[in-house]
Every structure is written in C-alpha cells, then in structure tokens.
Design a protein that fits this description.
The complex is a heterodimer of chains A (89) and B (280).
Chain A: H1 2-35, H2 41-82
Chain B: H1 7-26, H2 35-42, E1 49-51, E2 54-56, H3 58-77, H4 87-106, H5 113-135, E3 138-144, E4 150-159, H6 167-189, H7 191-197, H8 206-241, H9 247-279
Antiparallel strand pairs in B: 1-2, 3-4
Classes of the chains: A mainly alpha (89), B mainly alpha (280).
Chain lengths: 89, 280
Amino acid sequence: MFRDLGKYNMMVMFVTTLLANIFVGGLIGYYLDKWFFKNKVLFFIFLILGVFSGLYNGFKMLLKETERYDKSEKLNKKDDGADPGNGNS
Amino acid sequence: MKVRFTKKEKIFLAILLVACTVSAFLNIRELKKTPREEVFGNLGKRWVVEIGGFRLNPMTIFVGVGIVALLVFVAYKFRRFELIPSRGQAFLESILETFYEIVDDAIPDKRFVKPTFVIATTLFLFIAVSNIVGGVVPGINVLTDENGAIRKVQLFSNLWPAPTADWNTNLTYALFVLIVSHVFAIKSKGFKEWLKGWFQPSPIMLPLNVIGELAKPISHSLRLFGNIAGGAILVYILTYMTGYFFAPLIFWGFFGIFVGLIQAFVFSILAVAYISSQLS
C-alpha cells in the first residue's frame, strides 16, 4: 500500500512542480512587463519559459525518483534472494 | 491485523469520545437554521490585527508559540537519555533514528549531515504536532466579520486553528529551506562552483534554472497548506452538515493523524531532497 502511495506522491509532486513553475514564470513576466514595456510580450515569453522550466524540472525530478525507486527495488530483490528460508517477508 | 489497546489507551480514547460527544451536544444550539448559512457564513474568515501596516494573524502566532513551548517542554523532559529507554524515549529515538538514516543516505557531503538532520527533524516535529492539534483536538473557534474583527469566541465548537493551515507559516519554512540549501551549497562547493551550477547543462538554461529554483518554495509550501487548510475546511463543512455527531470523529481522526503526519513527513523529506540536490 505504501509503495502505491509513493507512486501517487510522485505524480502529485510532478504536477505541483509544473504548476508552481508556470506560476512563478507568469509572475516574473507580469511584473517585468508592467515596469518596462507594457505590451504583454514579456509576460507571454516568461509564461512560455515557465512552462518549459516546469516540464524540465518536473521530468528531472521524475527521472531522479525512478532511479531511486529502481535502486531500492533491486536492493529488495537482493535481500529476498539472500535468505530464501523466509523470503515471504 | 488485530489492533490491541492497553488499558490506558482505552481510557484516553473513551475520554476523547465522550468529550467530543458532549461538545457536540453543547454546540447543537449554536447551529444556524440553514446549513448553507452556517457553512458559508464563516468560511475563510480569519481574525486579523493590523500593527504598523503589517496584517497579523494572532491565532497562528498563539498556537505556534504554544506548540513551540510544548516541544521545548518535551525536549526538556527527555534531556537526559537513559541507557534503558522508557516508552516515550524509545518512540522519540525511533523517529530521530529514521530521520538520521534518511539524511545520511541523501546528503553527499558528510559535514552537512548533522545540520540538515536538525533542520529536517525540527520541521517534522513542529509540523506534525501542529497538524495533529489542528486535526484532532477540539479547541477555540474565533468567528469574525469581513474586516477581520472578532465577533464571537466559541470554545470546543471547532478544531484548533493549525499554524500550518496558514500559508505564511509554510512559506516561511520553505523560504528558509531554500536559503539554507544555497548557503550550504556555497559553503560546500565554493562560490565559483555554485555560480557555475546555474549555467548547467548549458548557459541557455539560466532562466529555466532561476524559475525552477524560485518555484521550489512555492510548490513546497502550497502542498502542505493545501492539504491542511483543505482538510480543515472539509471537516468544518462536514461537521456542520452532519449535526456534529458521528462522522466528525472519524473524519477528525483521518485528516488529523493520517494526512497530517504524512504531509509533515513529506515536507521534511522534501527539505532534505532540496538541500541534497544543491549539494550534489
């Protein structure tokens, strides 16, 4: 059950990272635009940058998590293989 | 799995059950005629005090200080670790040991294992106690009008207002973790290496890295805030809709203990992950 919870948490983390990046990008763009040009171009550019940054950081985090996940799974298998006497733990 | 309680725990649970039921009966006369009026009348209104241009939330400060005092008291009580641990000491030791193992695995630079461990466990203990207090224990409910002035103070009609259900608390901790992670990174790798880290893997990625770093505290704090504040609102609505009787006990237990502890754990694990990602 807790393993499934970890998967669920990974997805929630990805989504929150994505949304937070878009939000921050939009915020920076909005204020830069307000102070410099006032034609919404910077806002648009930074919003797009936020989307890309969200995807980049989100996938980076997902890859790291899956790597860790695989490592722990391998360790579990090794542990199971080491003591076949009580391998149903 | 069969759950077994000792006699003490049974008595404690019975007292909690009786207290909740009695407070439920006492609060029946406070109910409004229509549930709509009750539920949407007070939702999202907080007691706000303005001092010198700053808008303060006194309940967050009071409850936060109370939790800190409680934790300091517990720390004082267990200041001398015995060789043969008592039950409370064993419980605390198991929590601290789990955290130490996680931090020791995650942090590559061994000089920063201890400070990170201290930060992570402090955050976990504060947030866990705050979530449980705000999720299980009936406490003070302050009713306010639109401008944030007090209209009425009720005892035991709702849960304690958790400090973590206020975004200011969570954002403070998340920003603190962000600053600490960068300070550790500068100390560990040196200023030049740290500056180079912003241009990885190529200089074009600088804006993406800046936005990603700034977004970390936002997502870090909003996750905790959303879970706890959303749970509090859900419990608030459900308690009034069910006439404050049976369902609240179950929901209080669920949101208070289960979600609260998991979110506290996730918050401190993420703090460790952010610090370790800066150090590696």
